[in-house]
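Recap from last week: sequence in, structure out.
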Amino acid sequence: MTKESELQQLIRGLIRRNLGKEITSFEKLKGGRNSRVMRVDCQDGSIFAVKAYFQSAQDPRDRMGCEYQALAFMKKEDIHQVPTPLCYDSDGNIAVYEFVSGDPVHGDIIGNLEIDQAITFLMELRKLATPKKAGHIGSASEACFSIRDILRNVEERFERLENAALQKPSLASFLGQELSPFRAGVTDWLGRFCQRKGLPIDQVISESARTLSPSDFGFHNALKLPDGRLVFLDFEYFGWDDPAKTVSDFLLHPGMELPHELLQHFFAGMMNAFTDLGGLADRVQAVYPLFGLKWCAILLNEFTREHNERRIFSAESVDSPQEAIQLEKAKRMLGIISRNLHEFPYHP
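Predicted structure tokens:
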């Protein structure tokens, strides 16, 4: 029996035991670079979405447990812009969710109405960010509650890339000639900016200044229903985090290509929604280039062994041309944060 047929057998048993349904067909869906995502159809016409999650000794994060708990929590708190979790198998790292029949959200269909829905969703999560309601929720994946923590995270990622670059000449050239020198310049700029704005680099933000974050939020992880409502997907990294990270990641996310006016609409809307957090706009400007550097490193993960293992698991190709594609994306990201370093393009 192949690994794929073994997985299908596990899914059949999970749905039969918990939902009383018999599966008639499987269809692999696009997306899910850390997991296999499938549509399963059942004899009675029911349709479900099933995710099989990647797990490795190098990355022990419980993606399935995090996502399932997050969705169950949000549904319990009457947040409806997410799929309903139905059942799971912790041993097999498999979970079954409501199947959302909608269209991908990209290009010309994104406007202020879609941006407003994203802001509203993040506002709803902010309202739930209290110890009483969400005390059982852990920190988001790679959450950073001080600027120093972000610097450390970026440093760790660059160390992994430098090790990978020993056998990757194109990566070594980009790191040595462009990315690492810019990173050094960002560190110098950050010290001056934080001193001018009175932002202590080592200060940990208070619990009341934190929010609940999807941690990989954007229209690349959303579907649009026929009535125009958005449903947001992918909460494998959900948890408590710094709202400045949530805002910066949305502005920078390479999975979306939004015009400046929509990004400005998002930034202004988020600053208005989070008015209780004094100084958030300055904090976003401070960490924006750091998260840009982090995104560069994430895009370059293609060069690392661990990333190839995840790609193989999710049944995506691992051919070398993908490295060149990701290198170009990292260069574009570097261009964005380089242009915006001294003239931050967004305002409340």
